[in-house]
Amino acid sequence: MRESDKLLMANKAWARERVAVDPNFFGRLKDQQRPGFLWIGCSDSRVPANEITGTAPGEVFVHRNIANLVVPTDLNLLSVVQYAVDVLEVEHVIVCGHDNCGGIKAAMTPRSYGPLNKWLRNIKDTYHANRAEIEAAPPQERITRLSQISIREQVHNLTKTSVIQRSWYLHDRPWLHGWSYSLNDGILHELISVAPRMPIDPIYQFDFSGEP
Ligand code: CO
Asked: pLDDT of 109-136, one tens digit each?
């Protein structure tokens, strides 16, 4: 049996179990989703959004990439954010990083990773902009410090998007959160929480008053 066949078998068992516990489980979910949360997390296999938050299918809309970055030119991420905010009307957007992140670690080395360099460059720029604060920490704690600075940075990046700003202006939602997941004990910690309409640097603020 191939390793992948095990997943297909486990899936059948999972689906059977869901129906055994709740006969209408799939009937309720098949026609629409109404998640209250958008999760922007790391692709890391150890940080599965639903499992660590005790949420079921239908509760969390998920986007994951290496090191949970919010890059303003990333059409994939921006499309997910727009759909989650404008169509699904989520009340909370969570950027979730974690300690010992491979993406953060890779960005802190001089090694060239090919095309991935362009993605990691965003993390290197965050390091560059916060070098003094990061290097004030002992070497073994710098990955964690950069990771936490980066999580806050990604939340701020969300506040600079027109999608978030327009939704704040029109609907007074969503809240934005920056969380860090500990691989040591499985606990999530909130590093930053931003209420709708939080003032931001005016250079990033769009004016929606002229829109119909
Ligand atoms: Co990671």
From this structure: 999 999 999 999 999 999 999 999 999 9
How many Cβ atoms from other residues are within 10 Å of residue 175's Cβ? 17
With cut-offs at 50, 70 and 90, classify the pLDDT of residue 16.
very high
- Of 63, 98, 142, 177, the active-site residue reads 98
**Contact of 164 with 81, CB cutoff 8 Å:** yes
Q: How far is the CA of 125 from the centre of ligand 1 (A)?
A: 17
Domains and CATH numbers, the chain: 36-44+56-202 (3.40.1050.10)
Q: Is 96 a catalytic residue?
A: no
Is 35 in contact with 89 (CB distance < 8 Å)? no
Neighbours of 169 (CB within 10 A): 16
CA of 46 to the centre of ligand 1 (A): 9
Cβ < 5 A residues, ion ligand 1: 42, 44, 101, 103
Provide the 10 A C-beta neighbour count for residue 60.
21
User: Which residues sit opposite 62 in a β-bridge?
Assistant: 39
21-54 pLDDT, tens digit per residue, is 999 999 998 888 899 999 999 999 999 999 999 9
Residues near 6 by beta carbon (within 8 Å), at least 6 away in sequence: none
Which tokens in the block code for residue 126? Answer: 């965050």
Give this prediction's pTM: 0.96
Distance 27 CA to ligand 1 centre (A): 35
Residue 212: the pLDDT is: 73
